[in-house]
Design a protein that fits this description.
Fumarate Reductase Iron-sulfur Protein, Chain B, domain 2, 2 domains, 223 residues, mainly alpha, two-stranded parallel sheet, 2 strands, 12 helices
């Protein structure tokens, strides 16, 4: 397969964005318009460079790529993508924010049920979960042509961090209860965060030198 440079993909996305910009602003994109929007390919590093490095291969969407991809979403009323998500992220709602360029509202929407969007956007098996249920993918008879939910989740999480807009979730009034969480991997951190949000005192115990579990000790950087 021919490698398309990140620069060319970015330029193509700008052109696609210009085609639909007016309709996005007016809110007049029809379902047919959305079906005609091409899937935005994830930019990746140059093969000869990445073959000699352990850095991340997927580079992430640009702003235009994210907006264009988000506007492929048909905003299904029965939300099949949400039913495929283990933590029930409000997928149509966060994608609707991305489609309008409101990235902060998008990441805030995700964090209502998932505090690890940068991680889940990278390593969740979306093709078996949310994207596997996507109507767009089913219409195109290929999960590879579904709306790129994971890539959009990753984009808004990275955007928030890169723009120093990360905020802490609200915490309920103290309950006086104490919770011990064994292990600081994704599952442990999720449980700890949910318990803390509920107002409990939480202590996380970790056997290794660094917190993070599989994120630190299992998943290679290039993924």
């Amino acid at each position: 397969m021919e490698h398309i440079s990140a620069e060319k993909l970015a330029e193509s996305a700008v052109e696609e964005y210009k085609k639909i910009e007016a309709k996005i602003a007016a809110g007049t994109l029809s379902p047919k318009d959305r079906r005609d929007i091409p899937l935005q390919v994830m930019p990746t590093g140059e093969p000869l460079v990445r073959a000699r490095q352990m850095t991340e291969v997927a580079l992430g969407y640009t702003k235009e790529q994210a907006i264009v991809e988000a506007n492929r979403c048909l905003q299904c009323k029965n939300e099949p993508c949400v039913k495929g998500c283990p933590v029930n992220v409000h997928i149509p709602q966060f994608i609707a924010h991305v489609a309008k360029g409101d990235f902060k509202s998008a990441v805030d929407e995700i964090k209502m049920t998932n505090l690890l969007p940068a991680i889940c956007g990278r390593v969740c098996p979306q093709e078996k979960q949310c994207q596997g249920q996507c109507t767009v993918g089913k219409m195109n008879k290929s999960v590879e042509k579904a709306v790129s939910i994971g890539r959009l989740e990753r984009f808004v999480a990275d955007w928030e961090r890169n723009n120093n807009l990360t905020t802490s979730p609200s915490v309920a009034a103290p309950t006086g209860k104490k919770v011990a969480v064994i292990g600081s991997g994704p599952a442990g951190l999720t449980v700890a965060a949910d318990c803390r949000r509920a107002g409990h005192d939480v202590t996380v115990f970790e056997a290794f030198h660094k917190a993070g579990g599989v994120m630190v000790y299992g998943i290679p950087e290039f993924r």
